[in-house]
Automatic annotation (TrEMBL):
The keyword Transmembrane applies. It is found in: Membrane. It comes from the Bacteria. The chain crosses the membrane at residues 14-32, 44-67, 73-90, 102-122, 173-193, 200-221, 261-279. The lineage of its organism: Bacteria, Bacillati, Cyanobacteriota, Cyanophyceae, Desertifilales. Keywords: Membrane, Transmembrane, Transmembrane helix. This is Bile acid:sodium symporter. The keyword Cell wall biogenesis/degradation does not apply.
Length: 292
């Protein structure tokens, strides 16, 4: 699927604005106490960081070696793999057996650390494909800082030092972010569906394997507690499509990347919903069996 470069630029600007507002909303609502929840569990923190920043990109590399795909599709997969901390994690895990506070801590932690890790991974991608990819690490650092690090930091500071202002801003910013997110999801869905229908079997298989890999990595590294395992699995699988779109549109001229990112975002969302539903049903059955 080909996407006009002007449309790609507009999509990039829209994704940046949406991500900025959403990250500001997260900072306003979470505060340092919730942020530190994961940091107070160092073993779980290390496993989460390994899952999100190391094992998911490695899984993407293995999938790309196993399945023949076009360069734009592989680049889209790689970009999604290195962008954790999606702004919809906390909302996705507000219901059911998951732990929203843990999800929020995971989200904020990975989003803040992404300002360092994402540029490093992008420089690695550039080194692997010197003839096709030219990345200015400082530019990527600035992009991630502008849409994630700065708004979260501002939100956290307001939450801690101006709590009344944070309380007043929290709902309006949340509603604005939700409205913008809905628009971005509709755009992604509009792009992804034709991409899925025309991509062929192999790219779709790659997207399915990637989504499953993210869930399995989070599941097995999420700890022995079922609620923690459920939370980390879904959080780890929900990659930051907004950040990936921002990086892709700002640094690459290959329009196929945007469609590939949208496709992976769609399958990751579907896989996370299916996993969450099945795992919670399994836990309910186990508890019912143990009680009888």
């Amino acid at each position: 699927m080909s996407i006009d470069l002007d449309i790609q630029a507009i999509l990039s600007s829209y994704a940046q604005l949406t991500l900025f507002i959403l990250m500001l909303s997260i900072g306003l609502s979470q505060g340092y106490k919730n942020l530190s929840l994961l940091w107070r569990k160092p073993n779980l923190l290390i496993r989460c960081l390994l899952a999100s920043f190391i094992f998911v990109p490695l899984a993407a590399m293995i999938i790309e070696l196993m399945i023949p795909m076009s360069f734009s599709v592989r680049l889209g997969l790689a970009t999604m793999a290195i962008c954790p901390g999606a702004p919809m994690i906390y909302r996705k895990l507000l219901k059911g057996r998951a732990l929203p506070d843990l999800a929020g801590s995971f989200q904020v932690t990975t989003a803040l650390l992404a300002v360092l890790v994402v540029p490093i991974w992008m420089s690695g991608i550039s080194a692997l494909y010197p003839a096709n990819v030219t990345i200015d690490v400082a530019t990527v650092f600035k992009q991630v800082a502008q849409v994630q690090f700065i708004p979260i930091s501002v939100g956290l500071a307001i939450h801690e030092w101006l709590p009344d202002l944070a309380e007043d801003l929290k709902q309006p910013v949340f509603k604005l972010g939700s409205f913008l997110l809905l628009g971005m999801l509709l755009v992604i869905l509009t792009i992804a569906l034709p991409e899925v229908l025309t991509a062929g079997v192999l790219p779709v298989l790659g997207a399915v394997l990637f989504a499953a890999s993210c869930l399995l990595i989070g599941h097995f590294l999420g700890g022995p507690e079922p609620e923690s395992r459920l939370t980390i699995a879904v959080a780890n699988s929900t990659r930051n499509a907004g950040l990936a779109l921002t990086i892709a549109a700002a640094n690459f001229t290959d329009p196929g990347m945007v469609g590939a990112i949208a496709t992976y975002a769609l399958f990751s969302s579907l896989a996370g919903a299916i996993y969450s539903n099945l795992y919670q049903k399994k836990l309910a059955k186990q508890e019912q069996k143990n009680s009888t």
